[in-house]
Amino acid sequence: MVDAIKILGSLMGNNAVSSGLGAQVLKSVLGGGLGAGASGSGLGGLLGSVLGSRGSSGGGLLGGLAEAALKQFGQNQAGSPAPVTSEQCVPEGMNQQQANDEASLLIRAMINAAKADGRVDREETENVLQRLGDISQDEIDFVRQELARPLDVEDFIRSVPRGMEQQVYAMSLLAIDLDTNPEAKYLHQLAQGLGMSPQVCNQINQQLGAPQLYS
After folding, report:
1. Which conformational region is residue 122 in: left (phi greater than 0), alpha (psi within -120 to 50 degrees), or beta?
2. What is the b/e burial string over 75-87, where b = at least 16 CB atoms within 10 angstroms of the residue's CB?
């Protein structure tokens, strides 16, 4: 079985999709790195205060799932003698299958955004995979397939369940630098399809330190 929560944590923690905005945000949110203190007043507290992400998947900008994925990544990277499993990181109020499905959706959001300014070639794909760390062959195949899949924004929008619109938009924003017209057009199309107002989009961009999408 593909562990989407572990992949999501690797994508965010290793910043495998983008080296721009995602890296800047993660550095500021995580206080310069992930370590043994990646909970409580560390990762969890910072995510809660900076991004309003405490609670279940629908309770904040990034939601408890993104926090859980990063927490797992941070504790495992810290060399814990007993690596944290995805089952231990499932946010309260969610079951394992729901958490895995939502993590898969957020992975697609990040990868789709990374495709916005052009096709991801073989070299870029291998670079992403090499930076994902300790993942299984099934998980490598999952990421490879998502990277190779043609970008279909409308199909992706239809797959987003009600209540996850802002999470999907925020994760998409984290995966890009938002410094090209194609990226801005992609976010605009995504936001419109998700029924998000310009005001809400600009608020999220401001929270994540990104340029405003709408003037």
Report:
1. alpha
2. bbbeeeeeebebe
- pLDDT, tens digit, 9 for 90 and up, residues 5-24: 888 888 877 666 655 444 44
Q: How far is Cα 2 from Cα 18, in angstroms, rounded to an integer?
A: 22
Q: Which two tokens stand for residue 119?
A: 């096709």
Q: Is the pLDDT of residue 201 over 70?
A: yes
Both structure tokens of 164: 């996850």
Burial of 155 (0-12, 13-18, 19+ CB in 10 A): exposed
In angstroms, rounded to a whole number, what is the distance separating the alpha carbons of residues 34 and 78?
A: 7
Contacts of 211 (CB under 8 A, 6+ apart): 178, 179, 205
pTM for the predicted model, two decimal places: 0.76
Helix, strand, coil shares, percent, the chain, to 5: 60, 0, 40
For the four alpha carbons of 91, 93, 94 and 95, in that order, the dihedral sign comes to positive
The first and second tokens of residue 38, run together, are: 């990646």
DSSP string, 155-167: HHHHHSPTT-HHH
Pick from 50, 85, 47: nearest CA to 66: 47
Mean pLDDT of 134-144: 89
Residue 33 pLDDT level (bands cut at 50, 70, 90):
very low
Longest Cα separation, the chain: 50
Average pLDDT, whole number, for the chain? 74
